[in-house]
Amino acid sequence: MNFNTKLGVVLDQVELNPYIYSFETLDNIYLYLPYKQTLASFSKEEWARIKSLNVESNIAKALGEKKIYVEQGYSENFIELYKKQIGSPSLRIVYIISTDACNFNCRYCFIENNFNTQNRSTAKVDEVIKWVDYALANSNDELRFIFYGGEPLLNKELVLNAINHINEQRQKYHKSIAISINTNGSIYSDEFADTFKKSRVNLSISLDGPKELNDKGRVTKIGDSAFDLAFENIWKYIDKGVNVSLSITITKYNINFLPQIARWIVDTFKGKINGVGFNPPMESEFGNPITVEDFKLVMLQIYNAFRIFKKYGIYEDRVMRRLNAIIDERPHLKDCAGVGNQIVIAADGKIGPCQAFIGSGRYFKDIAPEEYNFKSDETILEWNSITPVNKEECKKCPFILICGNGCPYYASLKDGTIHGLDRRYCEMLPIMMNEILKDNFYGKIKAIFLDYDDTLMLRGNLGEVLDEVAKIFGIVYKIDYKKFMEENAGYLNVRDFFVANGVSEAEINKVIVAYIKAFKKGSRLNTWLIEQLKKINLPTFILTNNSERMVIDELRENRVEGYFAGVFGNSLYKKPSKEFYEHVFKTTGYRPEEILYIGDSMRDLLPIYNFGCRVALLSPKDENYTQILENEWLVDLCQ
Ligand code: SF4
Ligand code: SF4
User: Fold this and answer.
1) What is the Å distance from ligand 2's center to 346 Cα?
2) Out of 46, 83, 441, 597, which could bridge 449 as a Cys pair, Cβ 3.0 to 4.6 Å?
3) Rounded Cα gap, residues 101 and 257, in angstroms
């Protein structure tokens, strides 16, 4: 790269790296660029000069070394460079489906729900052992066997024989050989426990939170509680010295409580759990009745839970896979081993790249190990080519070297082809990167900004309150409140609402007084939150669309006004306008980098999130809310 050192300006052929991803706060800009997985931050002033290529030559040189400045046409060569790194298929994971039958009926299961027949298969020991030998002889330095199903432990003979066989072969092969079992946790035996301990098996047990949440999605066939079965057996295996980790699938029931679940796991299993992994919502070909559509929310929740797990030394796989790539400054081109690093031995003996296609049989073939060649298998070769650097839509994406592509099966469901995009990751990656940048550059949280209605003050039913007032004043709705909120970015300004419904200027103040009375009548203070704020012990400001006076009166009535450093109501600006938050930052003197904002919905969190604040979702009015999760997760997020 050339710089004109005499004039101190950058030559024409240099430009800002087109792969830079950034977000800004009031004062600073934080950026990620895929070259060596670089994270950086600049003041906005510095950044304005950098962007206009108006910097001194020595700084330009340093920016060139960091690839913040690049030569024009950089992106073409850049993609080609990483295409070369993809290489040929290399076997490192073997899924053994010991049976495709299951004793559970989990509502979201994309394996069981993909079968359009009741017929199920059970793997045969001698056939599987031949494939184990094939894998041992044809894998690279690291090989992991994963027993999967259905419920793999239903086929005891296969699991025990295959594990014993793998153990016997360990001495013969100079490679790292690991064994995992993904189970619903319903089956325990001393024989299993002894074998798992001896063979250093990682037992990954599915548990989607405490009983109240877990059992809404995870359902046994005979009507027992899935939680009770798994919970008891988790402890039995732990007590026997088996390595246990937890697999948490995200559903519409637990999505609002992932950080709480993280702290619940910390408190419940007290350091005995090896690691955890979050599974973003997945679908079968027939859908998923309890899925979550908002993947920004999914990632925000995963990340806050990750922060808690990290604090207590518990490894969370979903975030760590990317974070490790950043730490090692290496590209993460493939997140799923199915794309050229894995075979699945189905229970009927067929071979394919991905367990999600077992039900449909697509990509699976009937072949004997003696005739099989993993590296030249056409299906494996096709899957091996799946990575963002080979995709037109990903070519300009800043996350091309960290995304890892997501799940080709999911892409095939949504785009009709395994070569399509797993758009869940397109939504999740910017959120994950924002949070990684915050953890890297922000200091400690210095103040709390807090939503009021339904976060600190839990209200009664809004529709009923409005109806009560409408009845008193004989108001006939021209527009109902849900429609009104829809048309007003999800917010209800009561004055505007009643005016829109024909209340005159002369009447409106009386109507509002009646509304406030009815509104307050059905309300109760979130006392758990007050207790947490006491423990957090940071200046706390309330941000609300109510009037300051009403909120202060209510805090006084509840004798908690002393816990708050200030209330920002609707007198000057209203949420979610930019001016509202700018006014709060200016008046309090806190910068977005120093704030944790606590609110009850994504609609409430996102406007201040866009200023670069850290945020926490607290949904005490969610119908799945359970007091079991009233733990110290918020305190963790503030430390
Ligand atoms: S394609 Fe999806 S379901 Fe299949 S192995 Fe990869 S991540 Fe898993
Ligand atoms: S799948 Fe989406 S996030 Fe991932 S590299 Fe492609 S465009 Fe970017």
Assistant:
1) 30
2) 597
3) 31
d(CA 188, CA 493): 57
For the chain, what is the domain count? Answer: 4
| Distance of alpha carbon 533 from the chain centroid | 26
- Which CATH number is 122's domain given? 3.20.20.70
Atom of ligand 2 nearest to the CA of 429: 3
The number of the ligand 1 atom at minimal distance from the alpha carbon of 355 is 4
| CA-closest candidate to residue 28, choices 59, 53, 50, 7 | 50
The C-alpha atoms of residue 551 and residue 611 are separated, in whole angstroms, by: 25
Give DSSP secondary structure letters for 522-563. T-EE-HHHHHHHHHH-S-EEEE-SS-HHHHHHHHHHTT-GGG
Nearest-CA residue for ligand 2 atom 5 is 400
What pLDDT does 8 receive? 46
Residue 325 CA to ligand 2 centre (angstroms): 16
Q: Are residues 535 and 435 in the same domain?
A: no
Q: How confident is the model at residue 7, as a pLDDT?
A: 44
Question: Tens digits of per-residue pLDDT, 302-323?
Answer: 999 999 999 999 999 889 999 9
Average pLDDT, the chain: 93
Same domain flag for 473 and 364: no
Closest CA to 209 of 639, 636, 624: 624
| Sequence-separated (6 or more) residues with CB below 8 Å from residue 583 | 568, 572, 573
Using an 8 Å Cβ cutoff, are 464 and 612 in contact? Answer: no
282 and 168 within one domain? yes
Same-domain check for residues 206 and 225: yes
- Mutate-to-test residue for ligand 2 from 429, 431, 433, highest number of ligand atoms within 8 A of CB: 429
What is the ipTM metric for this complex?
0.89
**Residues of the domain holding 288:** 91-439
Nearest to 108 by CA among 285, 294, 289: 289
DSSP 8-state class, residue 184: -
Answer yes or no: do 35 and 177 share one domain: no
Query: Residue 410 CA: which ligand 1 atom is closest?
Result: 2
The residue to which tokens 């990509």 are assigned: 363
Domain end, chosen from 474, 497, 521, is at 521
Cβ atoms of 166 and 133 within 8 Å: the answer is no
